[in-house]
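Input for the complex:
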Amino acid sequence: MNQNFNFISDWIKPGSRLLDLGCGDGSLLADLTKNHSIRGYGLEIDSQSIEDCIARGVNVIEQDLNNSLDNFADQSFDTVIMTQALQAMRHPHLVLDEMLRIGNECIITFPNFGSWRTRAYLAFRGRMPVTKQLAYEWYDTPNIHFFTYSDFEALCRERNINVLHRKFIAEQFPDNLLKSLWPNLFTETAVYHLSR
Amino acid sequence: MTSIPLEPLAVPTDSIGLVSPQTVLIEKPLTLACGIVLPSHQLVFETYGTLNSDRSNAILICHALSGDHHAAGFHKGDNKPGWWNHYIGPGKAMDSDRFFIVSVNNIGSCFGSTGPTSINPETSEAWGADFPSLRARDWVESQKLLMDHLDIHCWAAVIGGSLGGMQAMRWSLEYPERLLNAVVIASSMKLSAQNIAFNEIARRAIKSDPDFCDGNYLQEGKAPLHGLALARMIGHVTYLSDEVLGEKFGRELASGDFIDGTADPVEFEVESYLNYQGDKFSNAFDANSYILITKMLDYFDLAREYNNSPTEAFAHAQCKFLLISFSSDWRFSPQRSQEITDALIRAGKDVSYAAIDSNQGHDSFLLPNSRYQAALGGYLNRVANQLESSQ
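Predicted:
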């Protein structure tokens, strides 16, 4: 796991059931299985990622998150996790509801569109930002919703979702004082731990 | 450098090469699900690769409705390899350099294992239509006796497509501690009404042939070739997709034409193809076996004895699972594999599921496909690595 995300494992009970929506190559699940004894499943549609998961022995299910998640029963997982994919969902708010229907808790990470880097990009270049976190041109990006962590918190309030933990990460901006004063400006990736 | 003219190779080098079947008489009684006991039965099987010193690298191949023991390589004099040759062989997904692969013709079939064409010791005549009704679990029981005969304690994997996948699932429930992995391809926990309907049309076609003689055609020295060919033609169409039939044959004509004023009878390529397939099959397969095994498919219901709860059923399994489906398969659609996957997740079992894009219909599980190859090969590569590292 990326070192910056180690704290996620503190939010997950050892031995719990975990569902990773958009699990990529399965490295997060592999790591949590090995070091945290979780029983995990990942959903993925990219064929190379599915092969990577199979090769490392991660349970991977070929299923499109934009279609229904009806096949998963209410509260059938302890934690449902989604990393860097919410902005690519057709209906992020409905996916969020689904995550909290299927899981007792959920962990979600997304690129913060309100960080100084993306603000500066838009302000000074007059072009939609292309950054390390958002590495696509506007016309071919899978990231079809742009929102800031403030937008996300507003959505949580509106839908009566409790924020158990929040963590803001700026890989290239280690100044914690600035981050704590103006998180929306200095956060490149936001990580939330939520429950109903 | 002088080039030395090479002798033409008898068999393609990427196959396991020449193989020959073995026959074993299992002398332990086999109690069938219907209550009838076979005091002994014969099994014909082939093996590919070498059993390792701790006898842990064995894979069991489970065949489907019309399959046999000849899954890979070539029989002497044949120019056509076994039915799963694309996936079994040296360096292939089921790698005969790393696994000891056992492929058995199951009882009730007609390629040398005890079935309707065998002699019933009680009457000294062929069983014919009197061969006992079979369930998938009877095949599993018989395979278990072969496993004991081969002195294999635990299969590294039990693998099958279609009815073969049903056997793999049944294995996981009947002998959970005797397999590490079950690979279930293009299969289902039970047949749909539409599936049963197609099977009944096929059976009716056989029974309507005057040469069927109520199933006693062997005693009468006859064979319901016409009815069996028709049954196969019906089945064959359902194993392919509309798209692949269109691609292969379109509206091409095998003979005749549509020119005004000519009386040439028109035959479409697809008619010619189907008739050829039907006739080829009816000369190679036994009609009573076809009826018996289609009934076995109809009766299969994985969760029936587990309060009709697939989750409760799979709670008994201990192995890991790989599920594979094909997008254009309308006999055992991807939805059926998804249902199996969902039940396994609810039961908390290890499972991966690959939904492969293919336009080849149900038959996709037999045909080359790079994603299918990668998923199955990748999964079994990990199984082999684990076995080899624990040796």
